[in-house]
Amino acid sequence: MIPEEWKNFEKFKVNEILTEIGSFRSIKAPIPIQYVIESYVADVNFVTKMDYPFPEGVSALTTKDMDIGWLIIINGREIIERQRFSAAHELGHLVLFKNQPSKVFCSDDNGWNEKLCDRFAGDILMPDALIHELYKSNPSPYIEDVAKLFRVSKPVAEIQLKRLGVPFQRKEQAF
């Protein structure tokens, strides 16, 4: 279970980042996560490496190079929605937990800090304001369309919509 004060801090950081980035360009879906990362954290380089030897079940890693600074390396073999989520998750590690070791692998660890970074990733890729804007024009969208609009997986879209308490439909259930 994520401590409440960390949930509040996470939401504060998401809003801070989106406000700062939003001052440079109007924010629309899908959120340009690479731009967000490179704009918000000055010493981060975003890399999609096809040949990096990722351990089984690892989608991304964050590492610090003495010359370059922080690197977020994404497993380029995964689908784009997973790559985007992994990048946002890694950004969460950098902004929520300042005292990172020099290399951080993210996998199926179920600790609350990993869950918090997952929450951060969902919140930054699907900001509340953009979800509310979507619902002004379509009060009960299909989850598949929401996921496609935000370029996230259906499970991520569903988690975000449920957290906000907004309704959605599934195409496979439609008649």
Key features?
Arc Repressor Mutant, subunit A, 4 strands, alpha+beta
Describe the structure.
- The chain has 175 residues and is an alpha+beta fold.
- Helix content is 50%, strand content 13%.
- The protein contains 7 helices and 4 strands; from the N terminus they run H-H-E-E-E-H-E-H-H-H-H.
- It has helices at 4-22, 33-40, 80-96, 112-125, 128-137, 143-150, 154-164, and strands at residues 44-49, 60-65, 69-75, 103-106.
- The protein has a 4-stranded mixed beta sheet.
Largest sheet: 4 strands, mixed
Secondary-structure element sequence?
HHEEEHEHHHH
Assigned CATH class of the largest domain: Mainly Alpha
**Known CATH architecture of the largest domain:** Orthogonal Bundle
How does the SSE layout of this entry go?
Layout: H1 4-22, H2 33-40, E1 44-49, E2 60-65, E3 69-75, H3 80-96, E4 103-106, H4 112-125, H5 128-137, H6 143-150, H7 154-164
Parallel strand pairs: 1-3
Antiparallel strand pairs: 2-3, 2-4
Helix pairs in contact: 1-4, 3-4, 6-7
Q: What's the quick description here?
A:
The protein has helices spanning 4-22, 33-40, 80-96, 112-125, 128-137, 143-150, 154-164, and strands spanning 44-49, 60-65, 69-75, 103-106. With 175 residues, the protein is α+β, with helices and mostly antiparallel strands.
